[in-house]
Write a structure and sequence with these properties.
Blueprint: H1 8-23, H2 30-36, H3 41-47, H4 52-75, H5 79-96, H6 104-110, H7 120-142, H8 147-171, H9 175-191
Helix pairs in contact: 1-2, 1-4, 1-6, 4-5, 4-7, 5-8, 5-9, 6-7, 7-8, 8-9
Length: 194
């Protein structure tokens, strides 16, 4: 079965997510996001009349849902398989980009907002992290882990993987990911009741 061709809007969102994953939000203009997606600037404003913040919010949600789909599918086989899939997709991103890209969700989360108000992309990032943690925690609970420990372990997994992706980019090596993968897998195996 062939994959459907993305719509122009989807192409712009995916391109924005990629740009943010490489350069961060503050260092990326809406013009650069449109150019990266090979979309006319006018089309970008047509789909995102509120501008850069709206596009960035959609890019964060797009990434969040893409990762959540992978997690939902792989977690059916258990939390270890879900962890492996989570790690594998970030490994692919950092390696395929020659250590230039990371996670756009993390990228918008760590930048200082221009105002005191929490920007929409940051709120979207918080929702994405909650979703990923929830999926992992649900799987852990299904495999005999108590609710509090499952929630804490899910937070640890997401935080460790996100931080490890940043370390891989800085070190230009997958070694941090390998070390993190080994330890998180051992921790999950020691925790689940299967």
């Amino acid at each position: 079965m062939t994959k459907p061709t993305p719509t122009p809007r989807e192409r712009i969102v995916a391109g924005a997510a990629d740009m943010i994953s490489r350069r961060g939000l503050n260092a990326t203009s809406i013009r650069e996001m449109a150019k990266h997606a090979r979309a006319p600037l006018g089309s970008t404003y047509h789909y995102f009349p509120e501008g850069k913040q709206q596009l960035a919010t959609e890019a964060v949600r797009y990434t969040g849902e893409w990762v959540a789909r992978v997690l939902r599918r792989e977690l059916r086989a258990g939390p270890v398989e879900g962890l492996r899939a989570f790690l594998a997709l970030w490994r692919k991103i950092v390696v395929d980009s020659d250590f230039r890209a990371g996670c756009p969700v993390l990228a918008v989360s760590i930048e200082e907002p221009a105002t005191e108000e929490v920007p929409a992309p940051v709120r979207a990032a918080a929702e994405v992290f909650d979703t990923w943690e929830g999926l992992l925690a649900d799987s852990l609970r299904e495999h005999g882990v108590g609710p509090d420990q499952a929630a804490q372990l899910a937070t640890l997994v997401v935080a460790a993987v996100e931080g490890t992706v940043a370390m891989c980019r800085a070190k230009r090596s997958t070694q941090p990911l390998d070390h993190t993968a080994d330890q998180l897998q051992a921790l999950i195996l020691a925790t689940i009741k299967d």
